[in-house]
Each structure stands twice: as C-alpha cells, then as structure tokens.
Amino acid sequence: MSVLIDCAEGVSPLLTEEEVRSICAHVLAAEGVDRPVEVSLSWVDDEEMRSLNAEWRGIDKVTDVLSFECDAPTTEDLPAGEPVELGDIILAPVQIARQAPGFGNDPVDECRLMLVHGLLHLLRYDHIEDEEAEVMEAREDELLRELAVQRGADPAAVAVGPTTRHEHD
C-alpha cells in the first residue's frame, strides 16, 4: 500500500502521516483488499475545498472531505501484481475542526471519521439512498471502534453521527 500525502502551504493536518497510513492500512485490510494499492491524500484550506466542491459537485460551500475514485481493487482487467490507483481523498482540517463539536467529536476524532469515510467512498460505498447510508454508517462505526482499540482508546467513546447525510446537498 502506498499513501501519497500532500499538504497545502499554511495548512495544519489533524493527523500524523503515520496515523493516516495506519488508518488506510486497517480499512483496506478490513475490506479484504489484498493487492497493492495507491491512495492520494491532500490537506487543503477552506478556499481550495470550496472551489473543488463547487467544481465537482456544484455546491459552492466548504465541505469536510471529498473523494475521487479511480480504479476499484476488484477490477479484473488490471494487471495482477501492479498497484491499483484507488483515488484521491481531499480533507479540509479547518472545516473538520469547525464541525467536530456539533457531532460530539474533537477535531482529531472527526478527522479520523472523515478519512475512513473518504476511503470507503474509494472502495465504492455510497450514501445516496437511505439503505446505502445505513450500511456505510455502520461500517464507519465498526472501523472506527477497531481503530480505537488499536490506539488503546475506549471504543465505546467513538462518536459517529449521521455523517453520510450531507445537510447542504
């Protein structure tokens, strides 16, 4: 697994590179991804996130996370053994920190949730329909509790709200 991390000038990431890689490895393993993959993660400021959200989703507001899928790890016509480019995850740490209290989270825990959310999108989870949202939210909850145990934290303290139902969409 390769995680390419970029941070815009003046932006302070909420997670260390080590933790980002650890979260990615855990989610991919838990989802049964057993071939080499590449994920790109970018930390951006509010202005860049608003611009990307407007361009790609037609919503002229800052959002917390965007995911851009490339190849699925199950695509059969990709050469065996070659890394699969899963896609890009864009995180806006200032927005994540701003919204965290409203979801009962601190900024770091909210960022962990947004990273897991973005990864699940790259793995083709979606939340357009209510049934899809319930499946995605349950998976986020399960993965975040597993990650809490890995960190030595209390999994019962994990707060996962209805993250997949974007109020501003």
Please tag this protein with its features.
four-stranded mixed beta sheet, alpha/beta, 5 helices, globular, 169 residues, 4 strands, disordered C terminus
List the helices and strands and how they pair.
Elements: E1 2-7, H1 17-30, E2 37-43, H2 46-57, E3 65-69, E4 84-91, H3 93-99, H4 107-122, H5 130-151
Parallel strand pairs: 1-2, 2-4
Antiparallel strand pairs: 3-4
Structure description:
The protein is built from five helices and four strands. The chain is of the alpha/beta class. It has a four-stranded mixed β-sheet, with helices on both faces. β1, α1 (17-30) and β2 (37-43) form a beta-alpha-beta unit. α1 packs across α4, α3 packs across α4 (107-122) and α4 packs across α5. It is globular and about 45 Å long. The relative contact order is 0.16. The model is unreliable at 165-169 (pLDDT under 50).
In what order do the strands lie side by side in the largest sheet?
Answer: 1-2-4-3
Strand elements, count:
4
The poorly predicted ranges are 165-169
Q: What's the helical proportion of residues?
A: 40-55%
**Termini Cα gap:** 32 Å
- Structural class by SSE content: alpha/beta
Question: Cα-atom Rg, whole angstroms?
Answer: 15 Å
Largest sheet: 4 strands, mixed
